Amino acid sequence: VDALARGYVAVGGSMSPTKGPETYLRKTREGRSLEVKTLPLPDGGVVRTFTDVTDYVQAQEALARKQAQLSALVNNIPDRVWLKDADGVYLLSNPAHRRQHGVRDEDVIGKTAAQLFGNEVAARQRETDLTAMASDQPLVYEDQLVNRHDGTLQQVELVKVAMRDEGGRAIGVLGIARDITARKRAEAALIAARDAAEAGNRAKAQFLANMSHEIRTPMNAVIGMSDLLLDTQLSSAQREFAETIRTSGNTLLALINDILDFSRIESGQLKLERTPVNLAECVESALDLTSGPAAAKGLELLYCIEDDVPRTVHGDVTRLRQIFVNLINNAVKFTQRGEVLVTVSCRAATNGGMLLHGSVRDTGIGIPPERQDRLFQMFSQVDASTTRQYGGSGLGLAICRRLLTLMGGRIWLESSVGEGSDFQFEIPLQPAPPGAGAHVHEHAAGLAGRRLLLVDDNASSRRILTLQTTRWGFQPRAASSGSQALAWVDAGEVFEAAVLDAQMPGMDGYALGGQLRQHFGRLPLLLLTAIGDPGKRLAGLDGAQALTKPVKAQALLDALTGLFALQTPASAPPAQVLVAAHEPRLAELLPLRVLLAEDNLVNQRVAALILSGLGYDVGIATDGLQALEQVALAAAQGGPFDVILMDVQMPAMDGLEATRRLRAHYPGAARPWIIAMTANAMEGDREACLAAGMDDYLSKPIRAAGVGEALRRAGAGLARLRAG
Length: 724
Ligand code: ADP
What we know:
The chain has 724 residues and is α/β, with parallel strands linked by helices.
């Protein structure tokens, strides 16, 4: 076989002389291909040559297979494929291509485009053919053409590539065309849908801005009027009706604000502020808003900021407070018994930075695991019956999550049914300059080592009180009940002051205070009372002070310092005394001439009543022009207005324009202090008012307290102005 493979010639044998030379292929048993040539010799013998042609045969077979694959591909692909030589004569055309042009195979091959489709079409094709042949890159472009098969207009994507010989000369062009009509149509539909959605979103945001304005204006009247009504002599039934109106008004307003917030966040209109935030003040103001409902249900509301939390951080104080208010409100709403504990602490982030960690833990109804992840979606509540029982829009947590996401943070919860829920969040912490020190309050000077008795039936409260007072250098001991505390006293323990929970089962704080006084004479006493406790029983404990719960660290320290510092309790400045003396009316403390510019009659009346309730005589204008006239008149008469409460949207001349003119007319210290009143709560309103030259801003519905505060700021601002 080896010899054969090398080509080997045999001579001999016999063959009929009449036969000519013969060639045939033969397979050996080993699978090799032999070409056998037989040449007859004149003497009747033969010369037979054997050549091994295995490689050649295999190459031929492979080529045939490749070609079959290629034609299967070209013939069945839905894309159109064709090949032309350098002169534009078709060498190949696949069925898809022929179908498109409505021609048969035999019509195409050997013909030019001009012969097949006319000069115009051919000229266009020739242009791109030549470009493709001149380039070593495939030419890719889109075109529109008429399908000759059915006359429809088609979008096609074309690829043309030059075919070259060994020398690199272009000898033809390969074309591929794909019908992209459907894709183009879908793209156009998507773009149209997106544009429509964007337009819809803008319209929705605008609609909500308008609605909020429209709804908040009458709400102003409802809430303001019921406030005023409640200040008059009413029978108890009337008072109840008026209170219901006010409560419902506030609920409605909260709901409107939620919807407004949510749509603002959704439409990307909400911009977070970045200012230094005093964390304690932020959390405490949230607690102030929620302590009423907690006390009404008899819940312990507790709060603790850990030691290492910076005093001041960079952030958006309104939004941070909103998150706390939402979570605390929910905790109070879904808890019948027990406590709500708010803690703020610091954690290390994986990227080396710090995270601010907040937790609001309750002992309420809890949330089943399968419902937990749905809660942060909008309009989602645990179940319909819960909603019926507790009310709510299902927006609170969705807003929290979106706000936290905007802040670069996250929110999650741990909960078990019947035991309670712990909503937690974290955000990147950016300490602001004065926050280099930690949140802790300085050691109470001279109080180190003082022995404090703490009595509270609530374990969390005891823990927090112990933690805080130890931190300040006191020596606290905490008892869980009056009888336990009295047992310690009976056993001879001595205390220099006592902090007592006012509401405890069995012996309450007042009774315990009385008993302790019997042991220790004028023992300084601090009672922790629920908000709404009238504090009348405090009078029975001479010199005792009261703090409302939840206890705030700074207020507690101040109160303790006050207790120890002052030996004569009669002159002790109350730390946070419950019973407020009757406050003189603001106008007596801060006389100001006030002009009210407001076109809506109801709102005008509400604002005027609030102002006169504070003791002010009010000038009234119903639009910007009138306001200008009144200001000029008063100035001419020698009694200029100090403060103008200016509605922003008014007919004839709006508040912004009136302000610009006033500022131009009355420069420097001669100018009035201008406070904007607007029902618009959209982003940028405040900026627009300030840019027009207004000094302050009241959002409607306006309230007596808000007006009072704004007037106090006006007094301070005017004093600064006039001092130069
Ligand atoms: P809303 O309270 O206005 O319905 P939220 O988004 O604030 O809307 O809350 C959604 C739902 O999550 C609530 O309806 C309630 O079912 C559940 N939930 C929220 N907080 C608590 C909690 N602390 N304990 C039990 N369930 C809660």
